[in-house]
Structure formats: structure tokens, C-alpha cells
From TrEMBL:
Record PANTHER family: CORRINOID ADENOSYLTRANSFERASE
Entry's EC annotation: 2.5.1.17
Stated role: Required for both de novo synthesis of the corrin ring for the assimilation of exogenous corrinoids. Participates in the adenosylation of a variety of incomplete and complete corrinoids.
Pathway stated in the Swiss-Prot or TrEMBL entry: Cofactor biosynthesis; adenosylcobalamin biosynthesis; adenosylcobalamin from cob(II)yrinate a,c-diamide: step 2/7
Molecular function as annotated in GO: corrinoid adenosyltransferase activity
Parts forming coiled coils: 1-32
KW Kinase (keyword) present: no
Enzyme class: transferase
Protein name as catalogued: Corrinoid adenosyltransferase
Catalytic activity: 2 cob(II)alamin + reduced [electron-transfer flavoprotein] + 2 ATP = 2 adenosylcob(III)alamin + 2 triphosphate + oxidized [electron-transfer flavoprotein] + 3 H(+); 2 cob(II)yrinate a,c diamide + reduced [electron-transfer flavoprotein] + 2 ATP = 2 adenosylcob(III)yrinate a,c-diamide + 2 triphosphate + oxidized [electron-transfer flavoprotein] + 3 H(+)
Family: Belongs to the Cob(I)alamin adenosyltransferase family.
Main subcellular location of this protein, as a coarse class: cytoplasm
Keywords in alphabetical order: ATP-binding, Cobalamin biosynthesis, Coiled coil, Cytoplasm, Nucleotide-binding, Porphyrin biosynthesis, Transferase
């Protein structure tokens, strides 16, 4: 047997083993229901990942609702796309801008409550296959929204409904309630070396 042949032979054996492991894991996952996902951490990629899931869901003609809690004045590309090309998607934006711009706690709380009322309806509506709560973690962190009530609504959502929660600082209570938690780690970000936020990449 040549070197190349024995390499191929070893590769085939390793892949067979790997396949057996993967097949066993697939076999063991026998629960079919909606999934709650938390995307948190200080790195870039939380909201864009959530919108990636929106696209996945739309690929299957699923019904999707997106509620955005902190929103700058600039609409980002994914929001423009949904507005212009996906009339079937329910999109609600808090629209007050960043808290450090509004500097108005009472006004922000009022808007957060109004936005939550929309989210709560979606989370109780079994026609929605996927609900995105973008940047809601800040509303909890600032205590603009009662954490207990948010957790309860996520817990009590329709059995088949999936929900994606994004934002930095998603705490332990939220982590407990959801099924999947991913922390996006900030290793390096272009902005820190003076590169401007880029259309189509950052917004
Ligand atoms: P994205 O929307 O690109 O997926 P994100 O949702 O993970 O990012 P946010 O905290 O919501 O991150 O911030 C959104 C904006 O801030 C984006 O323009 C993103 O590039 C930028 N950003 C994210 N993380 C960092 C960071 N660590 N340093 C500087 N800018 C960041
Ligand atoms: Mg985000």
C-alpha cells in the first residue's frame, strides 16, 4: 500500500467512526419543538445571525415577526430589505434610538413598554414560527422591562414557536429559560482601528 493509500484508508476509518457518533446523536435528539436561542456577548454577529435565521425561516415560508428594542436613526440593510421586499414579515421597531442619545429615561420606558406589548402578542400567537427580540437584553439590564414578565412570555410561547433573543449581557435567568446560548466573543473589531461602520457589513 502506498503512503497515499494508507492515508486514505485511515481517513475512511476515522470518518466511519465520526459518522456513527453523529448518527447516534441525531437518533438521540427525538424532541420536536420550537427552540429559544440567546445570542449574547461583546463581539460582532448577534443581530446579523438572528437575521440569518429570519432568512432561513422565510426559505420555508414560515411566518416571522421581528421586534427591535434599540434602534438608531439609520435603518440597517436587513431592515430595509424586510421593509421593501418582505411585506409578509411583521417588523416593529422601538425607534427611539440609543439610550445615550435620547437621555430620556421616562420616554424610553414608555416606548419600551409599547414595544414589549407588540412582542408579547407575537409570543402568544401560534401563527408565528419565529420571533426575533433584537437588543431586548438592554431593556432588561436597564430595568425598563420587568425581566420576570419577559421570561414568562418566552417560556409560555406556543410549543412550535422559535424565538431568538439578541443583545449584550444576556444574564443567567435568560440563559436558564432558553435552549441555546451562544456568546459572540470580541477578539478584534475594525471600528477599534478607526475603520468606519460599513454599509452592508455593520448596518
Ligand atoms: P451585527 O448587527 O453586526 O450582527 P451585533 O448585533 O453583534 O452586530 P451590536 O452590539 O448590536 O452587535 O452592535 C451593532 C453594531 O455595532 C454593528 O455595527 C457592529 O459592527 C458594531 N459592533 C459590534 N460589536 C462591536 C465591538 N466589539 N466593537 C465595536 N463595534 C461593534
Ligand atoms: Mg445587535
Amino acid at each position: 500500500m502506498t503512503d497515499e493509500q494508507s492515508k486514505n484508508e485511515r481517513h475512511k476509518k476515522a470518518m466511519e467512526k465520526q459518522k456513527a457518533k453523529v448518527d447516534a446523536r441525531i437518533e438521540a435528539a427525538d424532541t420536536e419543538r420550537g427552540v429559544a436561542v440567546l445570542l449574547t456577548g461583546n463581539g460582532k454577529g448577534k443581530s446579523s445571525s438572528a437575521f440569518g435565521m429570519v432568512m432561513r425561516a422565510l426559505g420555508y415560508d414560515h411566518t416571522v415577526g421581528v421586534v427591535q428594542f434599540i434602534k438608531g436613526e439609520q435603518l440597517s440593510g436587513e431592515e430595509l430589505y424586510l421593509k421593501n421586499h418582505c411585506p409578509q414579515v411583521t417588523l416593529y421597531q422601538m425607534g427611539t434610538g440609543f439610550t445615550w442619545n435620547t437621555q430620556d429615561r421616562t420616554g424610553d420606558i414608555r416606548e419600551a413598554e409599547k414595544t414589549w406589548a407588540v412582542a408579547e402578542k407575537l409570543l402568544a400567537d401560534d401563527r408565528y414560527d419565529l420571533v426575533v427580540l433584537d437588543e431586548i437584553t438592554y431593556m432588561i439590564a436597564y430595568k425598563y422591562l420587568d425581566e420576570g414578565k419577559v421570561l414568562q412570555a418566552i417560556k409560555n410561547r406556543p410549543f412550535e414557536q422559535s424565538v431568538v433573543v439578541t443583545g449584550r449581557g444576556g444574564g443567567s435567568a435568560l440563559q436558564e429559560v432558553v435552549d441555546t446560548v451562544s456568546e459572540v466573543k470580541d477578539i478584534k473589531h475594525a471600528f477599534k482601528s478607526g475603520i468606519k461602520a460599513r454599509k452592508g457589513v455593520d448596518f
